[in-house]
Each structure stands twice: as structure tokens, then as C-alpha cells.
Design the sequence.
């Protein structure tokens, strides 16, 4: 029973990835011409035709798509003609700088949001609830641009409390831990607003469950009761984290732009600026694969924590 | 409506109305018409006549901020409507028809949702080129999955309801079901989502403008933020404040309205 449910999820994950590839390479290649993007609007028709032939773009659509799928199986995402480097190598090199601030930032934010949401749900309408609700609304209504630019200019430029860059410049041996601190805190702040609200709603529902009163009536101490509530809410928490995965891997383009971090977001922006379609397509497929795989893993984890999910039931 | 909004909600709704008024007035040329003229020294500080100072080229920053409201309003309204239209129609189709159509659309939604929205946005901007129309289109094409899921869930619930089955027995097609049965049920949800996607579209526009992908001929708040550079370090605070305060205020007001609407539901 458990195994069939897992196999079903696995198959749907593979189908999703195949569809992503079809969407990204199939439709985008049909709509946009990398050669035209590379040459710009004023390119001469014969020049365009020559480049298309040189890049193999004049072959039938189906043949090129089949080539893409064949390449994916070998973990080959093609070559960025603009940069003259394999797309997979470019992407692999950009993961570390993004994860260096995004992963600790997400952990910090997750703990803060879960603790905050639980505190808000325990004393609904109390001072903590109102304070954190206001904070959540304020954070949500700040565009990431404002938060990042204002913090960079005030805290790093004007007050010089933090370094100006979020990753060592080429040839510099600065300490990474010191550099990623402000990007990490900003990343946590950008994610915190919506999560506080989400976890508050989640715990409001969970704390009203009758089984908690059952525990209390048997004299179970409040700390242990809360631990049960946390476990009961675990499926909701993991689902939320799964939904956050695509954001985690991309990081914030604004943070990477402002702090000059050579990460995934920075790579995407550079691809946009140089008209590097192959790199954008490769990024989309790689990140989608990681997202789908991560969500599958979190599903398995949720079933391991919450026995109700193992019987094919849904909360 | 006013009863549902409450005190803070009414203030927020009034602020949104003022924002729309400013944007329309700017479009008609009533306010901020001289946004392209060079009227002062570069980075001239705010004075009585030049209430937000000047930008890097000596243009009136106040006028440019007022003009920026236009782009935000158009993108916010059109982006949110397009998102709701795509997600709503596909969701209703999937939920009401069921079967193979439903499965295919759910698979498509899963695939679109697996691609980080940011890459859809940047890729779309790259293919379509800069401009307001491209921004609206990429917002609609990348954000519809959430609407799809909630509308589909509601449609599936309704499909089992007796009055919908009775209509089906009388030969009603899915378009009729959508208009007569689904839409009235979904109206409160769609209204709240419309405001939330309006907020979202404005933020996305600012982001794309920051990277030079939005309107080319009109100033936009995100573009103004990109122009600030590192001027604050030199004590030049007015470009940052001028571009960020209206952006934050509009988004906050819309957020409060959306919260009040969803609480009242």
C-alpha cells in the first residue's frame, strides 16, 4: 500500500519533469530564435541564416527536441553559445554562492516563523499576536527591492556595519561567513512575512484539535502537549517548506544583484542581459528537477513523521 | 462594502482610490507632465518648487514619481485580471469536465509550478523583450497556477452538488455551469485573489523594471529604485524615498484591503 502510493508519486514526478522539458525547450524554441536574440534586431537575413545553420537551428523541431531529451539523460544541458561554456558547468558553479546565504537564511526564518506562528496562535488577539501580525503585514508589503536596497545603503554603505559584497571578489581571501551575514538576514526577512501568517493559521487549526484537550485532561504537561501539536502540524509545515523550494534555489535576484553574489539569481540576470536563451532554459530545467525531487523527498519525510499519511489518507 | 472593510480597511481603500486618481491624472497630463524636462542641477535637493528634488539628470523627481503610478496601475490591474482569467478558466474547465481534461491540465499546472516563477518571468522577458505589454503577459503566464488550484477545487466540490447535477441532467454545458453556478460561488474568493494578485503584479513590475525590462518610455517605480544606485551613501536620500514610499504605500493599502475582504468572507 505504502509502496504503490510512493511509486505513483514517483511516476507523476517523472511526468512533471518531462512536461517541464517539453514546455521549456519545445515551446520556447518554437517561439524564440536564439540566433536572432544573439544578433539583435538589425541583423541581416543572410547573417541570421548563416548563424542558424552553424548552430543547427535549421533542423526540424522534433529532431532538436529529441536531442535535448537524449542530452538530459547524460546530464548534458547543451552549451551556452554566448559564454562558450557548458550550461551544466555554469549552473553547478553558481549553486554554492546562492546556498551559502539562502540555506542558513531559510533555516533561521523557518525556526522564527514556526515559533512566532505558535506563539501567535496560543494567545490569539494578545499583544504578541497583534505585534507579529503587524510585522508580517509590514514585511509583506515591502517590495524586496526596498528592503534590500535600503538595508544595503544604510547598514553597509552609510553605517559600514556589514561588508558591501556578499561573496569574496576574485582574488580576495575575505571570510565568507562574515560576508554572507547581511544577505542571510535579509533573505530571512523577505521570507518571514507570509510564513508567519501561514504558520499562525496552521497552528490555530491544530491547537483547536480535540486530541490536545484529551492529553491535557490526562494531566500531560503543556510543553508535551505543544510537542504533540508540533508533530500533528508537521505535514503542513513540510508542505510549506516544499512550496518554498523553488524560491530557495533561486535565492533572491535582488540580493545577488545588490551584493554582487555570483549565484543562481545572478546567473539568471546575466543570461537575461546577454540574451543567453540556452542558459535560461538550462536553469529552468535544472531548478524544476531539483524542486520536484525535493518535494518528493519531503513527502516521504512527512509520511515518516505522520502515520496518518502512510495509509494514503490526507489531512 | 464599508462594513466589511472596517476602519483600517476604509483608509486603505481610500489610499488605493487616491493612487488610481493620481495615475489617471498623470496619464491625462494633469500632474507630473514635465517629467522629461531638465529643470535643475543633477541631484538638486528638495525645495518648495521641486518637492522631491531632482534625479541624476536634473529632471523633476516628484513628477517622475507621479508618472510612475501609471505603469504600476496598468500592470497591477491587467496582470491580476489576466492571471485570474487564465487560472479561472482552466481551473473551471478541469474541475467541471473532470476525466482526461482534468488530468492533462493538472499535469500542466504541476509542470508550470515546478519551474521557479522567477525564471519564467526572466525567460518571458527575454523572449518578449522589454515593455509594459510583455510584463503583463509574463505575469499572467507565470502566476496562474494558484488560481487554477483553488478554482478547480471549488468546481469539483460544486460538481457533486445537486443543483449542478440537475442542470447537467437538463443538458447544460460547462460554460453555462461556469457562468450560472461556479462564478457566483467563487466571487468572494476571486475578489480577494484579484487584490492579492494586484499586489503581486505591482511587486513583479518593480522587480522587472529594476532589471530594465519594464516600460521604456515612462518612468516606473522599480526603474527609479534602480537609478538610486549608491547615492544614499553620499547623503542623497530623496531618490530612494521618492520611489520606495509610494510603492510600499500602495502595496500595504492593497494588502490591508485584501486581508479585510478575506476576513469578512
Sequence:
Amino acid at each position: 500500500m505504502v509502496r504503490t502510493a510512493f511509486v505513483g508519486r514517483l511516476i507523476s514526478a517523472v511526468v512533471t519533469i518531462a512536461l517541464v522539458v517539453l514546455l521549456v525547450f519545445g515551446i520556447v524554441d518554437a517561439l524564440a530564435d536564439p540566433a536572432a536574440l544573439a544578433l539583435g534586431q538589425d541583423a541581416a537575413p543572410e547573417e541570421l541564416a548563416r548563424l542558424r545553420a552553424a548552430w543547427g537551428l535549421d533542423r526540424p523541431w522534433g529532431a532538436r527536441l529529441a536531442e535535448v531529451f537524449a542530452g538530459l539523460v547524460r546530464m548534458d544541458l547543451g552549451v551556452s553559445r554566448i559564454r562558450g561554456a557548458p550550461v551544466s558547468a555554469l549552473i553547478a558553479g553558481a549553486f554554492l554562492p546562492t546556498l551559502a546565504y539562502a540555506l542558513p537564511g531559510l533555516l533561521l526564518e523557518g525556526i522564527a516563523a514556526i515559533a512566532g506562528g505558535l506563539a501567535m496562535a496560543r494567545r490569539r488577539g494578545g499583544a504578541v499576536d497583534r505585534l507579529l501580525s503587524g510585522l508580517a503585514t509590514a514585511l509583506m508589503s515591502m517590495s524586496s527591492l526596498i528592503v534590500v536596497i535600503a538595508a544595503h545603503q544604510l547598514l553597509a554603505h552609510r553605517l559600514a556595519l556589514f561588508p558591501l559584497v556578499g561573496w569574496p571578489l576574485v582574488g580576495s581571501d575575505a571570510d565568507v561567513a562574515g560576508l554572507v551575514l547581511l544577505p542571510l538576514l535579509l533573505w530571512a526577512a523577505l521570507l518571514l512575512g507570509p510564513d508567519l501568517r501561514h504558520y499562525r493559521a496552521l497552528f490555530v487549526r491544530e491547537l483547536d484539535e480535540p486530541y490536545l484537550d484529551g492529553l491535557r485532561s490526562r494531566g500531560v504537561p503543556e510543553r508535551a502537549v505543544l510537542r504533540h501539536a508540533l508533530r500533528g502540524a508537521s505535514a503542513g509545515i513540510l508542505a510549506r517548506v516544499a512550496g518554498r523550494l523553488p524560491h530557495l534555489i533561486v535565492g533572491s535576484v535582488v540580493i545577488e544583484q545588490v551584493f554582487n553574489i555570483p549565484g543562481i539569481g545572478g546567473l539568471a540576470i546575466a543570461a537575461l542581459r546577454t540574451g543567453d536563451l540556452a542558459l535560461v532554459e538550462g536553469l529552468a530545467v535544472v531548478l524544476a528537477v531539483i524542486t520536484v525531487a525535493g518535494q518528493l523527498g519531503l513527502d516521504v519525510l512527512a509520511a515518516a513523521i505522520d502515520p496518518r499519511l502512510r495509509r494514503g489518507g490526507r489531512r | 462594502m464599508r462594513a466589511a472593510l472596517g476602519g483600517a480597511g476604509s483608509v486603505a481603500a481610500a489610499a488605493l482610490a487616491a493612487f488610481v486618481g493620481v495615475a489617471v491624472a498623470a496619464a491625462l497630463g494633469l500632474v507630473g507632465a514635465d517629467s522629461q524636462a531638465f529643470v535643475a542641477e543633477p541631484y538638486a535637493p528638495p525645495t518648495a518648487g521641486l518637492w522631491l528634488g531632482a534625479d541624476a539628470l536634473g529632471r523633476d523627481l516628484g513628477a517622475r514619481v507621479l508618472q510612475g503610478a501609471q505603469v504600476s496601475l496598468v500592470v497591477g490591474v491587467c496582470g491580476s485580471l489576466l492571471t485570474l482569467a487564465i487560472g479561472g478558466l482552466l481551473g473551471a474547465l478541469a474541475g467541471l469536465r473532470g476525466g482526461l481534461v482534468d488530468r492533462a491540465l493538472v499535469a500542466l499546472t504541476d509542470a508550470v509550478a515546478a519551474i521557479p516563477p522567477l525564471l519564467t518571468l526572466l525567460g518571458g522577458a527575454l523572449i518578449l523583450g522589454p515593455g509594459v505589454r510583455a510584463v503583463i503577459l509574463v505575469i499572467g503566464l507565470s502566476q496562474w497556477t494558484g488560481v487554477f488550484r483553488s478554482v478547480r477545487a471549488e468546481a469539483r466540490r460544486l460538481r457533486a452538488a445537486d443543483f449542478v447535477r440537475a442542470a447537467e441532467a437538463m443538458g447544460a454545458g460547462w460554460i453555462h455551469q461556469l457562468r450560472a453556478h461556479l462564478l457566483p460561488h467563487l466571487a468572494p474568493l476571486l475578489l480577494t485573489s484579484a487584490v492579492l494578485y494586484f499586489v503581486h503584479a505591482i511587486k513583479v513590475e518593480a522587480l522587472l523594471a529594476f532589471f530594465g525590462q519594464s516600460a521604456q518610455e515612462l518612468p516606473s517605480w522599480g526603474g527609479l529604485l534602480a537609478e538610486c544606485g549608491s547615492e544614499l551613501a553620499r547623503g542623497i536620500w530623496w531618490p530612494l524615498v521618492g520611489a520606495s514610499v509610494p510603492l510600499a504605500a500602495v502595496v500595504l493599502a492593497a494588502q490591508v484591503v485584501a486581508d479585510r475582504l478575506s476576513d469578512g468572507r
